[in-house]
Amino acid sequence: MNxxxxxxxxxxxxxxxxxxxxxxxxxxxxxxxxxxAVDVGPVVLKVIEIVRCENxxxxxxxxxxxxxxxxxxxxxxxxxxxxxKVPKLGLKFFYWVKSREGFRHSTNTFNMMINVAGxxxxxxxxxxxxxxxxxxxxxxxLRTWTILVSCYGSRxxxxxxxxxx
Length: 165
Known about the structure:
By secondary structure, the protein is mainly alpha-helical. The chain has a domain at about 70-165. Helices cover about 55% and strands about 0% of the residues. It is built from 9 helices and 2 strands. The protein has helices at about 30-35, 40-50, 60-65, 75-80, 85-100, 105-120, 125-135, 140-155, 160-165; strands at about 20, 25. Strands 1-2 form a two-stranded antiparallel ribbon. A hairpin with a 2-residue loop joins strand 1 and strand 2. The longest helix is centred in the last third of the chain and has 13 residues, at about 105-120. It is globular, with a radius of gyration of 20 Å. The termini are far apart. InterPro entries: BIR6-like (IPR044578), TPR-like_helical_dom_sf (IPR011990). One of its GO terms (biological process) is RNA splicing. This is Pentatricopeptide repeat-containing protein.
């Protein structure tokens, strides 16, 4: 018997931390994946501190370069979440990380930046980001649609949301 795929007595209990059944499905694979998850919290905090710092002789871009951090989708999304009230800083980081070798924005990173811009009522920026999303071959998904309807709906510009798709 393979213990990694066994999750107890079939009633959803967890046995010795091996896996849990939820709605009849074995979560063993999910648990295996979680074991290799990396905590991006320290990187996110470091990047936020760098982006917010204004009292430095170095530019934000130079400080980010010198920070020697690894940037992935999860880090970028979590950094952008912190900039709902300051979209210009979020946008500056968004464009800087785009220039990093090996990094490519995803639908999730675009969605977060569009959401930040929409919450700040920067509708011109929202439109630019949606256009850039298409040029970057990032598919618009249900979350993109929801963000746009929410942004434009608050201004009663539903037609704009429809045109975006």
